[in-house]
Amino acid sequence: MEEILHHLLHEIITYSVLGFEWIGVIIVAISGIRGVVELFKKNPDIDLHLSQGMAVALQFMLCAEIVKLITIGDLTDIILVLGIVVLHIAITLLVAFELKHKKHERHERHEYREKKLHEQQLQA
Fold it and tell me: Which pTM does this prediction carry?
């Protein structure tokens, strides 16, 4: 019975990892397609939308790596998966930092335009 449960757990984890990885890939693909469309529309916020898509996709990929930790066999596998998790976390943090910076920059540009418009209305 224990062997059956262990096998079932291994199957559930395998399919969960595949599911999380595929979700991440699909999000990256959709973000890329959306980015190409926005590129042709000359949208100035294209990088913001691409960064948001990448951040969400990386979260799903990180989920997959964390779930993989459950089925670790030996120390070499643990070190490998933990290295991958650390890299995913670092990339996720960098993308999140970039996203926050771009949102702040966009907000400042908007405020600057509003201020200039207000000044022009006062001069008229």
Answer: 0.66
